[in-house]
Amino acid sequence: MKRYAIGIDLGGTKILTALVDRFNGKVVHFVKKKTKNAKGSENIYNKMVESIRDLIGEIDIPANEIGSIGVGAAGQIDRENGILIAAPNLDCFDFNIKERIQDEFAIPVYVGNDVEIAALGEMKFGSAMNCDDFVCVFVGTGVGSSIVKGGKIIKGATGTAGEIGHMIVDVNGRPCNCGAHGCLEAYASRTAIEKRIEGALKKGRPSVISEYLESGKPITSGMIRKSIKRDDELVKQSVDEAADYLSAGLASIINLINPKLIILGGGLIEAVDYFYETTIKKAKTKCLPVPASKIEFKKALLGDYSGVIGAAFLEERDR
Predict the structure, then answer these.
(1) Residue 210: is it exposed, middle or buried by C-beta count within 10 angstroms (0-12/13-18/19+)?
(2) Cα angle for residues 313, 316, 318 (degrees, 5° grid)
(3) Domain check: are 162 and 28 in the same one?
(4) Do 214 and 241 share a domain, yes or no?
(5) pLDDT tens per residue, range 262-294
(6) pLDDT digits (tens, 9 = 90+) for 163-186
């Protein structure tokens, strides 16, 4: 195994591309690019190529010392063929990442789900070290998860296991980007919180978050954190609603799978302690008493680097 690999975390708002030292899990160098205005397979492909070229151009390590490129994408994955089957938040469908990137750089490419790679990263060097039975849930643009049993990622019959964000929590509920209605993601993601706040502001409801808003730019996790610190009623209600739904989803996972540990990560979890703590408290009251007494919760230790570090080890997943 060559010492270095490139890990790419392809999310709903950004591409984080990093050179990772596989001997110690350290990020040597990284490049970050926004994807919010770069939707569609061709635009995303061009962004990925640009990111990899920029990264290689900014380091002193030659390309022939890089053993692989691992890509984690926010969506449903055909792992064997390296195809992003569907990523509604990126407007990507049937995008053959493996073939396109491998042809471009002549380096082996491995593809996984974005939360799958985060779980791999946390298992290698983060909050799940020495734990082989856990669920990793990341909350950001959407809500994604990965299930690990016996130290292995549970993929399911079609490779799409772990889609907690598309657990139905209201059969007649809000529309989701996946095309269904009432998905957890439509209630518990940062995007869902943003939509609720924006809707209330348009109706004239006051909120201190208005002081942080910039025209044409989204509500960020940082803005939500600042507003909660100022005890803003609208923002707290919006976050409470999201925590209520997310905790119900986690309680269902605890009852169904009975994991030892749940790791929570993503921008909203990292930035807003109130959301993290409220979600945990509610989840423990909603699941069965026995698993509630044993379940452990942790924040993702590697933060923004969970995905890129895990992606650098996707090669091992396929052995």
Answers:
(1) middle
(2) 120
(3) no
(4) yes
(5) 999 998 999 999 999 999 999 999 999 999 999
(6) 899 999 999 999 998 899 999 999
